[in-house]
Amino acid sequence: MKLDNIEHVFFDLDHTLWDFDKNSELAFREIFEKQKIAINLEEFLEVYKPINYKYWELYRNNSVSKKDLRFGRLKETFDSLKFQTQDATINLIADDYIEYLPNNNHLLDGSMELLNHLKGKYSLHIITNGFEEVQQRKMKSSGIHEFFETVTTSEEAGVKKPHPQIFEIAVKKSGAKIERSLMIGDNLEADIIGAHNFGLQVIHLNSHDQAVQNQYPQVQKLNELLNYL
């Protein structure tokens, strides 16, 4: 079903356009080689991913600081794997990760094709809970920065999605009308419920095919968005 009243499209970045999992794996591979961390990368990532997700949930709910997120997700992963390492080394890995991560430029399948299709038809924007210092670098290294008229981060807004204030700031920056705006993202709570409660139209990118039943339109792949736009 085509959405014929949309003028502004707001995207989440990580896991929606930017392939966080692939780029994160490449960053850890490079860091572990540099730091001579003798650990199986696949085993590390299997344990790290759910722990990282948990820490981002805590961060979004203001239960941990940015510093605690960066350190804690690594510390808990190494402890779970019974891999002995010093806190100082974990801090070095945490710092390197923020430095190396945005250097990788893989996008989710269909991202560039979708953006090229939407460019000129809609005003495009980013709303992200990611860290200010890395999100711009991610977009530039992957070649998508030029598509977006505005980028609103949680650090700029002072709150994180799903707080209505971040959507309010993003809409105000864009000059959009709420009723003519659409939010697309992978996180049901932060992106979809948050944006819907603020009054935006929404489409959930359920790329991991999670078993979720809700009233929101959803797609599994980015190219399916062309059915709506």
TrEMBL record:
Gene3D superfamilies: HAD superfamily/HAD-like, Putative phosphatase, domain 2. This is Putative hydrolase of the HAD superfamily. InterPro entries: HAD-like_sf, HAD-SF_hydro_IA, HAD-SF_hydro_IA_YjjG/PynA, HAD_sf, PGP-like_dom2, Pyrimidine_5'-ntase_YjjG. Pfam families: Hydrolase. The keyword Transferase does not apply. It comes from Christiangramia gaetbulicola. One of its GO terms (molecular function) is 5'-nucleotidase activity. The keyword Membrane does not apply. Keywords: Hydrolase.
